[in-house]
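FAQ: What does the model actually see?

It sees only this:
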Amino acid sequence: MTDNPQRYREFPMPDVGEGLQDAEIIRWLVATGDRVTDGQVVCEVETAKAAVELPIPYDGVVHELRFPEGTTVDVGTPIITVDTGTGTATEEPPRRTPVLVGYGAAPGPTARRIRRRPGTPATATAPPQLPLAKPPVRKFARDLGVDLAVVVPTGPRGDVTREDVRAAAQHPSPTEQLPLSDQPAPAPDETRVPVTGVRRATARAMVASAFTAPHVTEFVTVDVTRTMKLVRRLKGHPDMAGLRVGPLLLAARAFLVAVRRNPEVNASWDEERQEIVLKHRVNLGVAAATPRGLLVPAIEDADRLTLPELAAALGELTTAAREGRTPPAALRGSTVTLTNIGVFGVDTGTPILNPGESAILALGTIGPRPWVHRGKVVPRQVTTLALSFDHRLVDGDLGSRVLADTAALLHDPRLLLTRA
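And it is asked to produce this:
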């Protein structure tokens, strides 16, 4: 303890999401001795929901980084100490158990899964120089087993890009290629990737959903030739200039209209109270595959948006998710979900419900198939829709009506141009 604890300020790991218990430090943006100012981002952390930048709430000089990158720290545990310089000249920093410089405190119950880079020595005399890379790039490197410290950066700010990591994985540096002996190094039989952050949360949520809610999935194959023609026309419409227009936009619109027409499907099951909770807002979750795992950010009141507004919201949502910029608040509150598996060339599937929801729609690939049209077999643009629903909330009649309504709107999309 010191005479004036206000000089050495400890910044604890905050709860950057609703009720989260911990977060993983994925990148420090400052080092010991650096001067920081109130509001300056000092590190990036990954929670079970999103990657988040943490700003420091005061001015001063970094005295100590408590944990290295790759450490999962409990909320409320100090992660950085800053000398604010407001005390007396005789003050000393907070006394703690001696640790190796650059590695913070010895891990205890509040620090888990410390993963040092391959080749990092057990001791150090100064904080390591950390390569610049965005969170998705760092995750990509970890998955490929690439040490960012040996990657040659080509980014505009001297940062490592995905292409740099990919090149390093395909063409290891001479140092990495040379074995310690004349014998060739044996190839590993397997690679183990720690399950953390989003992937861990997704795995838990999917298991809980699959074994809690009785899933039913129905399918319908539909001629969407008119929808694809409408997509082409909308791309040239002045109201849609600069917006991403594709089948997903009109599928989202059709699904939202169907939900508004069948509001009982917009609900959740309260197990504790044994009640069905009918939702009065339709918040559309959109499944997005990212380097960090599957995210389902939500568009609030999506059913009340005009088509250009919905297109803008979808574009921002997917871009932010892929760049790792989705805030935790955007990952809460969805009431129904849409997933586009057609982008992977998949015809259809049986999607698992997002926990707390009663329905999820999967859009399959769209392509030419032989179809009976006006009494003749001709090539038409066709897709298959799959709707999974919680059979405690949604019976076959309601689920079928929602799916059939969505399909009908995509077959004849004229009604999608107006507000639902």
